[in-house]
Structures are given as structure tokens and as C-alpha cells.
Amino acid sequence: MKIALFGLENQAAPDLQMPLRFYSYNGASYKAQMLPDKPDGRQLVEEGSPDAQMKRAEREFRNDAHFNQKQPFYPVLTLVLYFGLRRWNTAKTLYEAVQIPDELRPFIPDMPINLVEVAWLEDEVIDRFQSDFKVVAAFFKQLRQKGDKEIDLRDPALSQPIKHFLELMRLMSAYSGAF
Predict the structure, then answer these.
(1) Sequence spans of domains, the chain
(2) CA 135/CA 127 separation, integer angstroms
(3) pLDDT at site 32
């Protein structure tokens, strides 16, 4: 059973195109839900054969409006994890990224991106994390506030047990250059 599809987009720098990419990721995920089942590797059915007629009937049934209303579609949630040390200073919505005349705006939806500015999370939010991401968030917040020379490893959020040590070190090194 599929309840939802979660997507994560990692950003090291603000990107004016992010709202467009956000739309395209979500759109591609919904499009994939509408496509008929993928081929299973069997040989193609010859046109005109009883099997081909059956396949055509199945496709027509799937395109029936009643069938599509009962499809078990699931929602798509994309989060943009921004690891920059300065505030995101560019477009967060389609309207901010694309020049849209005022008279067209009622017809064009403006979906904001789900942006998480990791280095700017409040301590109360960081404390609620139960995974290694708590260490990541605390590290980036300290890096933003103090620089890489003054990271306080006695911070309880940084001293918790780490399950995925190598991956965590690679992530922090790639985005911060601190290691």
C-alpha cells in the first residue's frame, strides 16, 4: 500500500529555478501514477491477435472515467533541504520566479516550495529530531553562528549516538568544507 511519496531536494545555494524544478518533480511523480503498468519484459503481442485485442480492451477500460476516479493515487510531498549558511534570498514561489501578468494570476496556481533552511532551524525544532538529522541540523546551526573553528562538540545535539556515521560525515563535509 502506498500512502505518500516523499521527495528530498538538497540545495547548497539558493536557486531561482527551484520553484520550477519543484513543480516538475511533483508533476513527474503524479504523471508516473497515471501511466499504465510498465512492460514486464515479455515479448510484444502481435497486432490483431486475441492477446492484442485483450490488451487494447484493458487500456480502454483504464481510460474509462469511472476507473480513473477510483485509482489509488497518493500524494507527493517534496521538501527542499537548504544547507546554506545565509538565508534563502531568491524565489520560493512560482510567482516570484516567473514574470506573470496580473491578469493571468487568477488562472495560474502559485504553489510555494517546502523549504527547510537547516542552519536556521530553532533549537526546539532541532530537539524534536530523533535521527542523525538532529546532529546535521545542530552542526549547521553552529557553523552558521560560530564558524567552523568554534563548533561546540559538547552540545547534546552533536554528542548523541550516530547510526550512519560515514554518510553523516560525508554530508557535512560536502556542504560545509569543514572536514
Answers:
(1) 1-35+50-118, 121-179
(2) 10
(3) 87
